[in-house]
Amino acid sequence: LLHKPHTIPIGVFGGVALSGLPQGSCASGTIAGILLGPTLKGITSTDRIVLYGDDILIAASSKPEAEALKKALKKALESHTFGRFRLKHSGVYHINDGFDFLKYRHRRSSWNGKIVLSPSKRCYTRMERKVMANGPESGKLMRSKIKLYVSRWMRSFPLWKRTPLSIIFLE
Q: How far apart are CA 74 and CA 77, in angstroms?
């Protein structure tokens, strides 16, 4: 299959490919990479793209460029060779304001200019509900639980790193 990049004869799968993948399949991330890699490469340079399963992040240097990339991505996905894909959630965000991606909140520190990662707002909300379900507690105890949660959460989910397989999809 790799000798002819991104060409998968349907006979290889015995017609199974026509019925789709079950939700949460282990193969879905790999297949998403095979299907979306060439499309994303056609939109912008691969060093500006993070493709993790079906989650896509594309970096831009200005808001007009980001809007143009969003429009190009939407058009490319709607007219994709293997069927119409749609953007479930899409937006243009400035790194200084922060944005959520892959359960992380990404933002640039106004203090030192470095990128700061923390659990996403959704993860914080889920944790807050769990803490509140345990009943009223002192503010000091709640803050210590939140601090412990953040440190454990950050250790549990390592950052995305380029792998040989992800590089193949975007080449």
A: 5
Comparing C-alpha atoms, which of 57, 55, 34, 39 is closest to residue 47?
57
151's tokens? 């440190």
Phi-psi region of 113 (alpha: psi -120 to 50; beta: other; left: phi over 0): left
Separation between Cα atoms, residue 110 and residue 58, nearest integer Å: 22
pLDDT of res. 6: 47
What DSSP element (H or E) covers 75? helix 63-78
What pLDDT does 64 receive? 92
Tell me the pTM.
0.61
* pLDDT tens column, 129-141: 777 776 666 566 7
- Locate 80 and state its tokens: 């994709």
Q: How far, CA to CA in Å, does 4 sit from each of 8, 16, 34?
A: 8, 21, 12
